[in-house]
Give the backbone structure.
Amino acid sequence: MFFKTIDFSKYSSIKVGQPTEVLMIEKGDTIPNDRYLIGGANNLLVSLTPPPLMMLSKDFAYIKKNDSILEIGAAMPTGRIVSYAKKHNIAGFEFCSKLPGTLGGMLAMNAGVKEYEIFNILHSIEIEGTWIAKEEIEHGYRFAKLSGIATAARFEIKEGFSQELLDALLSLRSNQPLDHSAGSAFKNPKGEYAGRLIEEVGLKGFRKGDMQWSEVHANFLVNLGEGSFEDAKYLIDLAKEKIFEKFHIILQEEIKIL
Ligand SMILES: Cc1cc2nc3c(=O)[nH]c(=O)nc-3n(C[C@H](O)[C@H](O)[C@H](O)COP(=O)(O)OP(=O)(O)OC[C@H]3O[C@@H](n4cnc5c(N)ncnc54)[C@H](O)[C@@H]3O)c2cc1C
């Protein structure tokens, strides 16, 4: 293992944070249990005082195909997974196309688009050396209860990459802001849309400093330039407070605040 300085104002998708020492885990290392693991930082909001961080090195960015099983390392970026699936005519990974991050982040978040979620196509996950079948892992909407760090996952290979599905999913994305964000800030409450609630309390387009509840999609907290952690946290807390006052709904963050 070794340390690497990662500047979260550049590395994270929301472009908030500062240069931070991150412990890089290599194949064969014992994974420390007193550090927070990050993937591609597409779902993170990093404060001025984050916990000690670690990250899987490129040793965990691989794809292996044996007969009917595809094994993918947890550090593999989603874009490369989709390219591989396309090249080898494998079905099921089309929805990862516009889902920025790594496989590990997708597993931990049970990331997905519409009815497509990573757990739907999953066979098993390797958690720190032990393979665990999907059925043994509690999971649901944007959540999975992993008992440790995912180092790889296996998928049963189904033939037939669908360019039509990929195109349809990509066009769905046209209602999302192009500004820097960490995806949806809140999970949708049952039977509701967090974006609608944010609009209802008048916060769509509301701005503090360079952070804003997007005018394009209210559940996206966007950074218009030099947005700070404090301003982002202020807007998150404000939305929660106003929505609780008006609807008695406690919104749950989808983004991880470190
Ligand atoms: C523009 C945009 C659009 C988005 N749209 C969607 C969407 O439609 N649907 C959706 O679900 N998400 C969406 N997201 C969020 C993001 O793409 C997913 O949550 C993605 O899975 C995050 O992956 P990551 O590698 O960046 O994880 P990170 O953001 O680095 O981490 C997220 C969580 O995963 C954990 N984690 C990371 N790697 C591992 C591992 N190996 N083992 C255990 N835990 C791990 C971290 O500890 C953290 O809790 C969007 C984000 C952006 C910026």
